[in-house]
Amino acid sequence: MLLLSKKKSPILFIMKNSITVRSLNKKFQKGRKAHYALKDVTFSVQKGEIFGIMGQSGAGKSTLLRCLSTLETPSEGSIIVENSDICCLSGADLRMFR
Question: In the CATH hierarchy, which top-level class contains the domain 2-97?
């Protein structure tokens, strides 16, 4: 379970594959200012496990899910699904993964 904050109810998902997230960062740049939506996120979810994502508004929940579903590209780090880093996918491989 990934716990981002204790203030909100969890959103639950059932994963079909093993996933390992290592040192995931997502930085948004606006002019000279940079904002990290995700900073050094690391966790592992095994096949069949149930996990929850909790947090306040702006904590990075949606950004994390967008990275996991390959709709958003992380600035740094890796997302390993069954021994493949999905952050490196592009084109046809990315469409096949989705």
Answer: alpha beta
DSSP labels for 49-96? Answer: -EEEEE--TTSSHHHHHHHHTTSS--SEEEEEETTEEGGG--HHHHHH
- pLDDT tens digit string along 6-65? 444 454 545 556 899 999 999 999 999 999 999 999 999 988 888 899 999 999 999 999
Rounded distance between C-alpha atoms, residue 35 and residue 20, angstroms: 24
* pTM for the whole structure: 0.75
Cα(61)–Cα(93) distance, integer angstroms: 25
Domain ranges of the chain: 2-97
